[in-house]
Each structure stands twice: as structure tokens, then as C-alpha cells.
Specification:
heterodimer; A: about 375 residues; mainly beta; 5-stranded antiparallel beta sheet; B: about 210 residues; mainly alpha; 3-stranded antiparallel beta sheet; 5 helices; 3 strands; extended
Chain lengths: ~375, ~210
Amino acid sequence: MNRTVSVLPVLLLLASAILSPAPNQAKDKNKKPVAAAPADLVWPLPPDPPRVRYLAMIRSADDVLGKNGKKMSFVERVSGKTPIREEFMLRKPYGVAVDKSGRILVADAEQRGILILDRNAKTVSLRKGNGQFPLFLPVGVAADDDGRMFVSDSFAGQVVVFGAQGTPVAAFGKGIFKRPGGIALNRANGRLYAADAKANQVLVFDTTTFKLVRTFGGTSKSGEYEAGTFSAPTNLALDSKGRVFVTDTFNCRIQVFNSEGKFLHMWGTPGTHPGSFVRPKGIAIDSQDHVYVVDAGFGNFQVFTPEGKPLMFVGGGGDEPGQFILPAGLAIDREDRIYVTEQRPTGSRLQVFQYLSRQSAPPADGKVK
Amino acid sequence: MQRKLFATVSLLALITGLSGVLMAQTKTTVFGTDHDIASLGGGCKGCHVAHQSSAKGEMLLWTQALPTTATFGVYTTPTMNTTPTEVGGNYSASNLPTGAKMYTVLCLSCHDGITTPSVIGAADGAAIANPTSSDGLKNDHPVNLVYNPTADAGLESLATVQATNVKLYTSGTDQTMQCASCHNVHDNTIPKFLRVANSNAKAGLCGSCHK
């Protein structure tokens, strides 16, 4: 069932040009921030030093090659295939991840597969399930250092494992999950953490045996906002210490646990002011342990210290670069590039940003425990 | 005297009964349904997030210039007390969901595949007409579109539709179809939160709009 679209040199060359800004350039600009030109979107605005730069917006091949231009015909002619646009189109994206070799993985529920943008191999492919391990509603995706890819299926209630060869080799969690969503891998302890929005808990699996190790969370019995309980936990992320940051969506808060599931702290309330949430979803952590959370109610992502102090936000409901309609998934790669998927009714998108102060900025405020 | 007492009691009974009826009408039946977020530990605030105007936002440490009283725009009025004339609205770059116009987006903000079961497919008429889409969209009626019986002779007149329980939403001069045209988010009396029972009869859901 794997359908790999043939090599698209032009497409990927352009894509990599967009997605890989020269590090020197970014550093230089960071050194002496000039007034942001329209083409150079940064947040926050001067006089505050810029922390995040807009890099790219990807909806389909059109965004890389131009609309129906000669280039597209050329690529189509070279590749010998016409459905390139369709293959590359984001339809109902949610989870996004970047693997060890820099491939961007996007779970697309409507296409029942994972879109893979591989800048090095210069391919775009749609990885689907097979008869033995089908994918119905892939929503979460994570990749380990061995080339394996883990995909959560919220409809089938399991996680499907793709081997290094790109084919599904195993599945686990059937009968244990109710509705798995966001997943994350801890390479140090070999565990996969999965948020289950229906079961109101986080499930921890061994990534070798695929056996359930533990669960934590649960539905509040005593009332609202009970620490350590969830109301539709949808997404999670791990920081450099292995701590688990869970988006507790209907409780409008982020809860933090250690890798064993012990509750540590939490922040956030329902509200419309900075630091609060309406519909928090995707969550990711950068190289300095800043915590990023998208909110589908605000159409933005907010950046926090690990303790939950709000630092800034990017976005607001809208169609322009740096604005979002129904943002869902969030990922940050090893180069501190930030990926946000949007389930826009008029066309889904993937927007890419760069966290800027990687070397120069002081560490996140507050102490990392 | 006895008669008077009887009249008083009757009146009281009538009032009690009436208020009972009134209460039944005003109190939603969301409780106990799948949209009763309280059953997940979330309560009404799962959807009805108050804007908490008294609450001050925290200082944004990277954005010193921004006042701490700033608030974010959301897809709806803060209390979601929208009226039919406020909702609806077609989706375009010039009509962004910054106001109280995005009923459909509001639904999709939860029906995303994880938070709640997914509504597969993009939510506009153009997407469902996309012949290149191989999967999905086949089970879902398009939404967020203008209801135009003039352009489509197969559609009932506006007056006919408006006489049914199906609800059209005003957007400018247009009547539009949104998720909530067929679904009442608070009332699961008819399964799947439908406003009209899904049957092939003329009085059924489809027949409300389609001739």
C-alpha cells in the first residue's frame, strides 16, 4: 500500500531551500535585528529581540512550485505521474513529527496515512497501512532513532509501528486504548507515552515489547480541576529531562509529570487572556525547554517557561502567514524549527517557524527541576 | 370559601405546571449526552469558556510592550451567546472567523480526530466537489455553504425550509447551511443530535431541503 511519489528534484530543492534557511543568515539577523520587512516575519516585534521567525507555509505542491505553472508541468512530465498535487496535499492533518534524518512526518486522517516530506532523498510519499495493520484515522506520529515510526489511530484504538523499511510491522494497544491521540517517545527509557482523550489518561508502553507499562491520570471524581486528572488529554510532549507535558484540553491547562507519571505541576485556566486557554492542543518543547502550545480557539501558539510563565504568542485567527485557523498539531525538530498543522476548512496547511535565540538567548526563566 | 381555595390551588398547580413546562423548554437537554463535557470532568466550560474580563493576563516576558490586559480573539463571542443572525458566514479571506460567525469552525475545533471523533474532510462545498479526493468526504454532507434554491431547482424554497426544524443561518444577505443546520449541539433527543429524524420520508432530514 505504500505509494511513493517519484523523485521530485525541483520540488524538494525548493522545499529544502525554504525549510533550511542558512544558519549563518539566521544568526546574523539575530545579532542585529533590523525592522522586520514584510518578507521577514518575526515575533515579538521590535524593540523586543526577535525569538521566532516565519519560514514557510505548505499546503500542497502548489505552494512550492507556483500554481499550475510550467514548472509543475515539467515536474509532472519528469515524474511521469500526475497525482503529485493530490499526494502532496494536506487534507486533515493533525500530528506532526520530524525524524532523525530530518524527514517531516504529518498524520493525515482523511488520507489515512502519513505524509512524508524527505528533503535528503528528495521524495514525497504517503505511507499507508496494509491489510494486516490498516490505518483508519491516523492522528499522532512519532519517530525513533532506529528509523521506526509510530502512528496512533484514534478510530482503531491502537498504535501501528512502521519498521525502518517503511512498512507496518506491528500494532499494539488494541483493547487498552479508548481514543489515542498525541504520542511521544522517550529514547532514554525506551517508552512511548500516549494521550488518550476518551479514557482521560496517559498510557505508557515499552517500545521493545509493546507491553503496557503503566497508566496515569484518570477522570476527576471530586470535581473540576483536580490536579493529576484529565478532561480530554489530547497531546503531550517530553522535555530534555523526560518530563511529560500533557495538554489537558477541556480543563484548559497543561499538566506536568515525571517520566514515571508522578504529578509535578500545572498551569493554565479557561480564558482569553495571555497564558490562558480555550482549546489547547498540540504541544512541543524546544532545545531550551520552552513549552509551545497551540490553541484552536485563539488560532495561535503560546510559548511558556517550563513552569508555565507565558513568554509570548504567535498568531491569531486568520489566513495570513503566522495566523492560524484550527491549528492542531505542533512539533519542534532538532534545529528548533517549529511545525504547526492547521485543519482549515478551506484548505489545510503546515506552517514552519524558526526559534531564533538558540545559542544567544539565556535559558528559560525559572529553574528546570 | 372552598371554591376559592380550590381556585387558588388550581392556580398554583397551573403555575407550577406551567413553570415546569417553561423550565423544560429553557433547560437544555445536553446533560447526559455525548456533548455533556461534565461527564469528562470538564463541565460546560469545555465549550463555554468565559473570557474572565476581570482576570488579568500575565506579563509576557518576551513581549514587554504588550499590556497585560490584552485578550485573544476567539471564534465566537466569549460567552457563545450567539443568535442565529450572528453565526453562519462563508469562509473567505475577507470574512475571517474573528467575530461570532464561525459556528462550523467552532464544531471543528473539537471534532478534530483526537479531542472528539473526527468529522472527516474539509468543511466546505468546494472540497466535497473536489473530484481528486480519493478518501473521505463521501459520508459527510458539505457545510458552510450558501443555501440557494434559485440556483438549484432541487432545493426547497427558503420558506419551506424555514418551516421545518432545520435551521439556516444568516450571513449578510445569504442563508447558509452550517453544522448546526441539522444538528442541535445541546439536544440529543433524536440520536446524533439531529434536528429532524434521518429518514427517507419527505418529512425526514433530507426532505427538509431536498425536493
